Amino acid sequence: MKQKIISIIYASFIIFIAASVIYFPQTVLSASKRGLEMWAGVVFPSLLPFFIVAELFIAFGVVHFIGVLCEPFMRPLFNVPGVGGFVWVMGMASGYPSGAKFTARLRQEGQLSQIEAERLVSFTNSSNPLFIIGAVAIGFFHDQQLGILLALTHYISNFFVGICMRFYKKNEREHYIREPFSIKRAFQKLHQTRMKDKRPFGKILGDAVIHSIQTLLLIGGFIILFSVLINIIQEVKLALFFSHFIGVILNFADLPKELAIPVLSGLFEITLGAHEIALVEKSSMLMKAIVMSFILAFNGMSVQAQVASILAETDIRFRPYFFARLIHGLISCIVVIVLFQPIYQQKSAIHTFSQQGVNYLESSLDLLQATGIPLTLMALVIYFFLMFQQKN
């Protein structure tokens, strides 16, 4: 009976989406176009190099090398192997869903157990500085210092999420040998891994490009889908219905109810939510920072759907990741309140120190938006060429 009800719910939802697409063709078209532009102009060109490099790192044993070096602090802090250090850094540098992608890849390689992978993905799938400072803070709020506050809040609270999740399934002990720090042993691991992979360099490079672009095509589909969904929800006035419940929660947390609809948008798609939060006038910057930090930590349903799809290729369960997002959201709200006075309002020393980095991120985002679509088209041409070569 339960499965029959679920089948009816699924069918009803799909019929509702299909009917909405037919009834609101202009809304769907504009939403699809906006999602496609964001994917082709920013997401694809910014993530593709990281994905390809990560695949090459795994193939040539660099991840094993990093794992041996990071083991002495990754195991005591987060109860994951040293290779988690590679995922952590790459996840912060490239942004979501990279942490999930790299964790799933290492799980498929057998370098992580199921429990270790579930711990690792819970705190490594974070936003990147380019998006937080460049797109959100400067692009929507026109406030560089807010970007520094949000970035620090995001990564500090994510660190505490990792500390909390180290106790996840702590009674299920994994069998591992604690070995001392050794550069020689790290090089030996690197060499052994490279020798095991019998593929020639050209084949390794081609596979890295193909696997990376396939993942990015999947991500692009989710971005466009959720861009359409949030616009349909707004068109049929469901957003107003759900915003009443969010308004009650905001009122309980002493936050202005005007943020209810922007929060709902952000829970579906971060970029749209950030844009709407920035436009709210009846709210202080502290209130906006609290809500924005929660949305960045929660990831949005769009990113969570991407993560769920990536993890579905492995035995890594999605539930611990979702639970960690709620923890991350709560911790980030506390951290942003603590850091707001020293980081945002007292701008002198920190502002001067970070100005150069902020300017670099801003110029990088401008360059990406200017060249992103041509780079995406060129990469897709290479992808189809490599796929054609493989089939022949």
Automatic annotation (TrEMBL):
Which keywords does the record carry?
Membrane, Transmembrane, Transmembrane helix
Species, as recorded: Gracilibacillus dipsosauri
Q: Describe the location of the Nucleoside transporter/FeoB GTPase Gate domain by residue ranges.
A: 42-139
Say if the entry is tagged with keyword Membrane: yes
Against InterPro entries, the record matches this protein to: Gate_dom, Spore_IM_YlbJ
Q: Where are the transmembrane segments?
A: 6-24, 36-66, 78-99, 147-168, 204-230, 286-311, 323-344, 367-388
- Name of the protein in question: Sporulation integral membrane protein YlbJ
Tell me the superkingdom of the source: Bacteria
